[in-house]
Amino acid sequence: MVGVREDWRRQEWRRGTHECVRHVGVRLFALALLAAVSASAEFRAGAAKTVVTPDLDKHGPIYLAGFGNNRRATGVHDDLYARCLAIAASKRPVVFCGVDSIGLFHDDVKRVREGFDADIVVAAMHDHESPDTMGLWGQAQGKSGISEAYNTFVVDQIRSAVKSAIDGLQPARARLAKTHDPELDTFIDDDRPPIVHDSEVIALSITRADGTPVGTLVNWANHPETLGSKNTLLTADYPASLYKTLEEKLGGVAVFMNGAVGGMQSPLGSKLPGLKDNTFEKANFIGKRVAEMAAAAVKEGRPVEIDGTYFVERMVHIPVANPGFQLAAKADLYKGRKPVNADGTSSAPVGVVRLLERGQPVLEIALIPGELYPELSVGGIVKYDGADFPDAPFEPAIKRDLMSAPYRMLFGLADDEIGYIIPKVEWDNQAPWLNGASKRWYGEVNSVGPEAAPIITGALKELLKP
Ligand SMILES: [Zn+2]
To answer: Rounded distance, CA 106 to CA 421, Å?
Structure first.
């Protein structure tokens, strides 16, 4: 499944050159050229944001995503955004775009990427108070909630942010930071064992050579669903105040990338003193605190001299075992997106980005096409009584076992959204239920199947080889 282009890149990497060569068609020529390019390449960066709030008249009716059917948007509390950070250590930039959206299928991501000479990562925030761009939460069960006019608008607005970020590339300096303050865990409730959070905040902050801010990318993991299922106002949820606070503290454009949000990483069950559930106050508090901690970490962060970037992506093919997913495809809820292949699989991208300092990875980023259970990121898989596949081997934990760089990010819903990615040994679609539970655990109903985790971690094991 490794494409030719990917082979080239892997070999460039192994030879110690510092950039991917997708845009160069002849390998020998590329190798001769590369040494010169990377030696003289200067680190550059640019950032931009565009609004993706729907026009309720023009794009409507807009159904809010993430809970039940027929939750129609009645107004706007705060704007939704596409926020992009472009970085380049050679001719070909890498662009990271975070979008206040429930999820964007790879079909729409491909439309974003069309025609750009750049490696573009588009990750949805998984915002449960944003329009249904996936089709699962329409007027009634079996009716798609997608507004094609809105999806097209989102794609166009992301493209516009990508273009502005690339056009704005200027000589820049980078700083990396991380913090794992215990307060971060108090914002997350996990209602399915094992209780694991991937709650570290990792930040990449960029300024121009003269110190003026370009932007800061923050990676953390929690469902943006603080407002719950009764709210009908469009909002970015906690990321709204995260952006605002981060931009106040550090300037430039704030970009957020959500992480391993699976099974279940949610503010809904978290109890915060003095803050009522399902309120904007609670959402604001969470976003503000995460941004304050990120900004403080950046001030103490490590300046890095980025002299190379690396991007690789591979399509994987996962058997669709979930009858609900098969029905949704048959009912065309996704409106032509996410086709089931002739062999019963669904295809999704898995990828890796590396930023290099003196040729060595200083930041590694895993690109995960869905909602990863955090034990698949930081470790902590448990074999419980009642498991459907008690003999399944434990998958490697991506950040813990597969990465080696001092800074490690994991972007969930990156370039696709296939639902929950559950460790195979924790898969539980048949009674008896895990850990002696009296009823079915929540999770499998929103997962493509038990092979998702082994296939995705298997691909990453290859892609993350040093
Ligand atoms: Zn979710």
So the answer is: 17
Centre of ligand 1 to C-alpha 41, Å, is: 40
Q: Residue 112: what are its φ and ψ, rounded to 5°?
A: -60, -40
| Tens-digit pLDDT profile for residues 444-457 | 999 999 999 999 99
CA–centroid distance, residue 149 to ligand 1 (Å): 24
Pick out the chain residues at pLDDT < 70: 1-41
CA distance 207 to 308: 17
Quote the CA–CA distance of 163 and 430 in Å, as a whole number. Answer: 48
Distance 225 CA to ligand 1 centre (A): 9
Which residues in 320-455 belong to E strands, given as ranges?
345-357, 360-367, 371-372, 407-411, 420-421
From 125, 144, 143, select the one nearest 135 (Cα to Cα). Answer: 144
Nearest Cα to Cα of residue 64 among 90, 100, 106:
100
- Please measure the distance between the N-terminal and C-terminal CA atoms of the chain and give it in whole angstroms: 19
**Cα 371 to ligand 1 centre (Å):** 6
* 144 Cα–ligand 1 center, Å: 18
Which candidate, 355, 448, 461, 452, places its Cα nearest to that of 399? 461
- How far is the centre of ligand 1, averaged over its atoms, from the C-alpha of 117 (Å)? 32
pTM of this prediction exceeds 0.85: yes
